[in-house]
Amino acid sequence: MLDETLESIFDEVVRTNAGEREFHQAVQEVLESLGLVVAKHPEFARDKIIQRICEPERQIIFRVPWQDDSGEVHINRGFRVEFNSALGPFKGGLRFHPSVDLGIVKFLGFEQIFKNALTGLPIGGAKGGADFDPKGRTDSEVMRFCQSFMTELYRHVGEYTDVPAGDTGVGMREIGYLFGQYKRITNRYESGVLTGKGMNWGGALVRNEATGYGTVFFLAEMLAVDGATLEGKECLVSGSGNVAIHAIEKLHERGARVVACSDSDGVVHDPDGVDVELLKQIKQVERARLSVYAERRRSARHLVGSSIWSIRAQLALPCATQNELNGSDAATLVANGCIAVAEGANMPCTSSAIRVFHDAQVPFGPGKAANAGGVATSALEMQQNASRDSWTFDYTQRRLEEIMSNIHRTCFDTAEAYGVPGNYVAGANIAGFAKVAAAMNALGLI
Ligand code: NAP
Description:
This protein has 17 helices and twelve strands. The radius of gyration is 21 Å and the shape is globular. It has a seven-stranded mixed beta sheet with strand order 9-8-7-6-10-11-12. Strands 1-2-4-3-5 form a five-stranded mixed beta sheet. It is of the alpha/beta class. NADP nicotinamide-adenine-dinucleotide phosphate (NAP) binds near residues 242 and 320.
């Protein structure tokens, strides 16, 4: 529920950003937590900090023309929304997916402000992408698209200005093509302009695994509050992309068993535990559909048209996409004995799903806290680029685990301090907002 001041701010956001449904949803979720902060800090309302945070510093929309292998011309739309740079250079991923529009990029960029603040590292919030579908495209088509995309984007980014990374549809292959084009245009080997790079051209160990691993570290911290561990727990992990695969890998390493994962065509149910190496081979090497997994593994079944959330398990990690888990899915999970939920994806649970988890007192870790390990490790990659250094896997993973533990502690303690113990959504929103708001106030009217 929003109080009168916050309600009118929200109405104004809806009015001035018409049709941007996901952006409205992300703003509403944050505003619902801020009543308590505004009561404690009336200066934030007086100085219109909330209204300023809801308005991006800069929004760039551009044409991306490219040719496919047969010579046909295609035109896509590219976006970069530079939302807030009070804490550091803009930072946030690029998403290539046909569903990408301004509203999606703004919701992701808005979330990114608070997520980046929670990491404790000096990075502002941004997001970008294009409505390009890399699925089924050859390497040379993807390369030409990336080169055309960067031909416009290069003028807006830079290691001290804006540092993009990957997201859905943008992995190391795409980052390579983007970095190569940036280097050609600028004549600078500016490693710090993009993160998620390959190891022999400026990348950092653990960055690729970081979002999935970090989500599991956060989940382990949530369980530890009640004296529980991951050991022996059955889990559902939606998606089968970068975040899902590495979440599954780390869950198995910590003694849990992932019994199902998914892609946009269906669900794989594998009661013996998902075979991560086979999954990597199919999704990352062959770039094939998940149905192939079930063809190659006897213990697995491929289910089309049924929800992954109807499978019985104790832990749920939505790692695919926004709004993939609704109120009725949440009710099913709770009825089936789910004891904790951590979001690997951005805003995968609808508002009504979150309400169901809160009402049932099922600990719920929101994406802006639970999946912050990816961007945190990106910031570690920037540190290594700046010092021309390269850290070991173990050292970087230890840093990641420490950062996730600190984020958990910050969210947990903030929720307690504001009288909503155990509410990680409020804890994350309040702690992230307070940090950005204080910096904005210190920097004058920005
Ligand atoms: P990705 O590698 O492109 O994988 C996305 C996966 O989700 C694919 O397996 C995709 O299947 C599946 N998927 C998409 N829509 C689905 C649906 N409606 N139902 C079931 N599965 C669906 O992307 P990613 O990097 O793992 O990102 C996943 C989520 O994590 C996104 O919300 C992203 O914003 C968030 N995130 C990513 C990072 C990062 O470092 N990569 C960091 C923070 C947050 P198809 O192959 O069929 O499309």
